[in-house]
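Lab notebook page, bench 4
Experiment: in silico fold of construct C2
Operator: M.H.
Input chain length: 149 residues
Purpose: comparison with the prior construct
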Amino acid sequence: MRAFLGLGSNLGDRWQHLRDAVAALPDVVAVSPVYETSPVGGPEGQGPYLNCVVELETDLGPRELLQVAQRLEAAAGRERGERWGARTLDVDVLLADELSVDDPDLVVPHPRMWQRRFVLAPLADLAPDLVPPGWEGRLAGDVTPAGRI
């Protein structure tokens, strides 16, 4: 199954959190460039995020990918507090082939990914066929290329 995970960090050693998460992921096929982005929503005063998307070719289903994501977040010391607050690591299951999940703790495709430049820019680097044409002109926010993991 072809799956995509979104990774973001805006606390601590942001680069190291992303590197560690990518290194711990199973079945990695590709990693997008990393983008620096302004926080979307959440409390004022947060620092900028580093974001990337990772493509997997995996036998894991969406629920198992969520478990992997939560383990990676815990390993990075993520504390769940304020919604859309600062975090050492955020890992979202974006897409899992054509599968659709709508559970209280997991929605795939990710419900807000199509409105987030910080998701679509790196996803477009890996899978331009999955991103709607003209998305760049419809989304607010800044993404700045920051390098590669």
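Observations: The beta strands are 2-9, 28-31, 34-37, 49-57, 90-96, 101-103, 106-108, 143-147. Helices lie at 14-24, 62-75, 117-126.
Next step: discuss at group meeting.
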